[in-house]
Structures are given as C-alpha cells and as structure tokens.
Amino acid sequence: MALISNESLERVKQSVDIVEVISAHADLRRQGARWVGLCPFHEERTPSFSVDAQEKLYHCFGCGVGGDTIKFVEEKEGLGFAEAVELLAERYGVELEREREDPRAEAKRQHRRRLGDLLDRTAGFYAAYLWDSAEAAKARDYLGERGLGEEVLRAFAVGYAPSAWDTVLLRGQRAGFSVEELRGVGLAQRGKGGGEYDRFRSRIMFPIRDRRGRTLGFGGRAMRSDQGAKYVNTAETEFFHKSRMLYGIDLAKAAIAKAGRAIVVEGYTDVLALHQAGIEEAVGVMGTAITEEQVASLSGMVDEVVLALDADAAGQEAMLRAQRVAGDRKMRLRVAAMPAGEDPAEMMAAEGGPERFRALLDGAVELTAFQVGLVLDRTDVASPAERDQALAEVAPILAGLGESASRDDLVRRVAERLDLEPAMVMGRVVAAQPLSGGVAAPRGAERRPAAAGARTPAELTSRERRERALLAMCIALPQEGREYLARLGDEHLSPMGARAAAWLREHPEDPASDLPRDDADLAGLIAELVIVAHDEPASHEAMELNYLLLEQRRLEAEIARAGEAGDPERRAALSRDRAALVERIAHTERVGG
Ligand SMILES: [Zn+2]
Question: Residue 72 and residue 77: Cα distance in Å, rounded?
C-alpha cells in the first residue's frame, strides 16, 4: 500500500456524503442551509453541532470540535488518516490510486510487514500450543481455575510458550526469518555467552494487539515458581511501545464506541474475565499506571474513562497527568475502587461478581475526590502529626483543581474530617504547588496554545468572538476579505486568530478544501469559520465595525504600554487617535443601523 494519490484523495472528498456519514453517530435535521443535531463528541441537551453539507464540514459550537469528513471518521472510528480515507473510499466506491513511494520508504514498509507477519505467526503458534501440547496442561488448568472459558481464551488468542530454549527461534528461522528479525520483534534475545534464545519460555502468552487486531508484542505469565519475574512483556521494539497500547482494544473498541465509555483494568486476565461476563468495554494497562498516551488514544471514542485499578499503588502523579489529558479532551476520568485484595478477574469468578462490579462502576468517583478520600481514610485524626501530614498530602492534589465548586466541596470535606477551619485548609491549598504541574494551569493564562482552537464559546474572550466574526466574513465576502486580511496584523488578533488569518491569506480560494492534517485546532477553527461564513449575514459595514473594534483593542494595549514605559507624549498622541477612532466606530454603527 503506497501513498494515496492526491487525485484519488480529491475524488474521495467529492464523493462522500458528510450528512450520511455523521448520521450514523448523530441525529441530524435540516435547519436552513445546514444540518444540526446533538453533538456526538460531548454530552448536551440542546443541539450545537452543525454540519455544512455543501462544504462537507462539521463544527460543534458547544465543545469546539470540527473538521471535514475524513477528520470525523478518524475521530469517531479511531483511525489514522490513510485508514479513514480507505474506509470512505470503499464505502463510496472510489478506486484509490497509489503513488509510487521512494524506495527507502517502500523497503521500510516491506520490513515492517515481514515483522508483523512473524509476530502474527508466532501468536498463532503459541495459541495452538496452549491447546495441543501436554506441557501446557498446567497452564490450561490455571486458566480454567480462574474461570476463563475456551471461547474467550481463543478470542484473545491466549497461548503458551514452550519450555525449550529455542523453539520459536528455530521455527522462525525455518520460516525464513533472520535472528536479527526475531530479536527485532522481541521474540529472541542474546545471552551473556553471545548465543540467542527464546525470550518467552514456560509462560502463558497474551498477544498484545493494536486496534486493527495486529499483534505487536506479548505479555507472558510465568508458570513455574523459579522463573523470576511473574510477568514479562515484550521489550520496547520499533513496533511495540507498551505505554501507547491498551490490551484488548481490538475486541473492546466496538463496545467502547457504543457505550461512550472505556473501563481500564490492570491485568490481562482482568480484561478476559470482564469480556467473558459481557462487560466488553474493558481494556488493560498491563500492570502499570495509566499513561497520557493511553488516555489520549481513547479520545474521540469516549466521554468517560473509568479506572478499575488498585489506585493506591498506581502512582498519583501518573493518574493526575492522565486526568489532565482527559480534561483537555473533554473526557471524564473516574475511579471505581476495587475492594482491597480483589482484582476484577477474581470478582468475576465469584458468585454475584458481575453485579458487584457493575455497582462499583456506577459508584465511581472523580479521580481527585478519590485520591483525597484515600489520604483521609488512612489518617489517624487523633494524631496532630498525622493530620498535618494529611493536609500536606491533599493540598497539592486540590491545588490541581483550580477554582471550582468541586474543589470547594473537597476542601469542606477535608476540613471536617481533620477538624480544621475550611479557610485554613483553603489557605494551604492556594499556597500549594499543584502535583505534576499542568493540572493546575489556571483556565486561560497557561492553557496550551494548541488547545486554543477548541475553546468553547463561553471560554472565548469578546475579542476572540469579534475576530472570529470578522474572519468568517472574510470568507463570505472574499473580495473585501482580501483587503481586511491585509489590514489585520498579528497585534489585532489572538495567537489562534493570527494563525487562522495566515491560513486564509495562503488559501484565499477555498480555505476548507485541504484542511491542515497535523494541526487539529487550526483545522477545527477553519471549519468553524467556513460554516459560520455560510450561515451568518456578512456586510461591508459589519466587517468595518468589527475591524475598528479590534483596532480599538490594539490601540488601548499600546496606550497602556506607553503609560508603563513612562512616555506621556506618546500616550497623549495615542489617546487622541483613540478618540478619533471611537467617533468613527459610532459613525459606522449608525450607518450599519
Ligand atoms: Zn460538541
């Protein structure tokens, strides 16, 4: 599969029916020139999701997402760009032409395909070995005792690695793979004496597959007590980056998309047990704390991630970072507290387990509240030293919340439990450095500029609303638009507005026909502007008024700077300019009626 040619990409874009594609995920109805409905990316009661069938763009005025049909499919189906194009091409009967790639890229892809093939074959071998070999009898018994049936074990291709030193090594070589290739995918490793041997031996093998079901690595559970580590995973390879993978995602993705929720558990057998019990939104983090990449990989598919982990052990900092990623992407992160000493697999095997697990899911609490609860629960309130310690621990967690009702609630709870004045607790919180940076970034000031394009309307400043209105009119009235885009400088605009203006200058004809692929915020903003341009009235007078108001903001900033710089003359001159400008604004408003 080489690169998709530009011509066929164009044909796909022309052939798709965006209303039809989106209708699979949202009920749309026609309203004037556009289609509107409840946003499939965020929870809402009144529709703020808008689709422009002609321009083939979508935008949500509630949560700020937006883009073209391909973007929608990428986000909603969790696909990469090329995969989304392929899916749409197939659906709308467009034959994709490929361009010849440069030979190095071609060779690299061939290499990756070979290694993928090696991993898939080996997974197949392990799976067959579990069911067919005498030496795997103990493993079959173990899995059976954990309550895991053959059906779910086969669905996840659970297998067994032979005890011999070189079974996989020899099989691989016989099939034409080199020792380097076997090492490259983490199946073989070199011993101290220089000889090669199988990395996985006498272990129950869990193939770790990507969304599309391709095996990228393995987790192996020891079956003998003398084997050292109980769990061994594939080391990081060019394929396998454990921190980005979620175990079971290939089998869970449909249920996750349907439920709008993912349940994250720790172990392989936890995932299997939950799927077997019909809780198919479960994926596993493979024994470590959840990572930012794992949370990010779920965005677009879910509104909510529920962690059913032993949260005490799972690293607060890691969880808070994960929470920040979730928050940035409009997902909730909640914790379902597992009873001490019981994991989901054990719970599923017990009488009434699935019901108890579902009750835990229903009772899941926000991560921060959960962590504060943990600290309070283990504090002996009779001891002043422990109370002080508890306060020192919760203050940075609460500082991470920023000003909010939930922070105030938690402050009250802490004060009550530790028998302190709420004001005193709040004082400590305000003084504390938030855990893991970032989380506490005050809304606005320290927000990553990258997120600025996806701000909700309520978060926009009046200047941003004004600049967006003006930029949309530049699209609606292209002739005037060119003139205003030339007059607008970066000092009139927010950083995001300046990037959008630069894009419009570079793409004056058809700004949305080729949205930037590597810059989701800009793509979303351009989609929004084009949709607004089609829908809202534009006039020369309105453009002039918006421009003058932006100019007034610019002048005021300059006046303030002159004041700070101790330059009264310049300040006076600028103030006269401002007075003249205010008069022009009043005049324009009268004319504009
Ligand atoms: Zn939305």
Answer: 8
**Interstrand relation of 282-284 and 261-265 (parallel, antiparallel or unpaired):** parallel
Q: Are 65 and 454 in contact (CB under 8 A)?
A: yes
- Tell me the CA–centroid distance for residue 58 and ligand 1, in Å: 10
- The tokens describing 275, both together, are 């799927």
Q: Which residue has the tokens 């019981």?
A: 342
Residues written for the chain: 593
- pLDDT < 50 positions in the chain: 1, 436-453
Q: Is 305 strand, coil or helix?
A: strand
Q: How many CA atoms lie within 13 A of 103 on its CB side?
A: 0
Residues 535 and 59 sit within 8 Å (Cβ to Cβ): no
Cα distances from 301 to residues 41, 199, 331, in angstroms, run: 8, 35, 10
Question: Which H helix or E strand runs over 216?
Answer: strand 215-222
Q: List the 34-37 sheet strands across, edge first.
A: 28-31, 34-37, 49-52, 57-60, 66-68
Cβ 575 vs Cβ 552: under 8 Å = no
User: What spacing in Å lies between the alpha carbon of 588 and ligand 1's midpoint?
Assistant: 35
Please give the distance, rounded to the nearest whole angstrom, from the Cα atom of residue 43 to the centre of ligand 1.
Answer: 7
Q: Which two tokens stand for residue 360?
A: 């835990």
Q: What is the pTM of this model?
A: 0.60
Q: Residues 488-536: pLDDT tens digits?
A: 998 899 888 999 999 999 988 889 888 888 788 888 899 999 988 888 8
Q: How far does the centroid of ligand 1 lie from the alpha carbon of residue 60, in Å?
A: 5
302-326 in b/e form (b: 16+ CB < 10 A) is bbbbbbbbebeebebebbbbbbbbb
Report d(CA 550, CA 144) in Å as an integer. 70
- Please tell me the distance between residue 459's alpha carbon and the centre of ligand 1 in angstroms: 14
The Cα 120–Cα 210 span in angstroms is 12
Q: For residues 397 and 321, give the distance between their C-alpha atoms in angstroms, rounded to a whole number.
A: 12
- Residue 571 makes CB contacts below 8 A (sequence gap 6+) with 559, 562, 563
Ligand 1 centre from 330 Cα, in Å? 9
Q: For residue 495, how far is its CA from the centre of ligand 1 (angstroms)?
A: 23
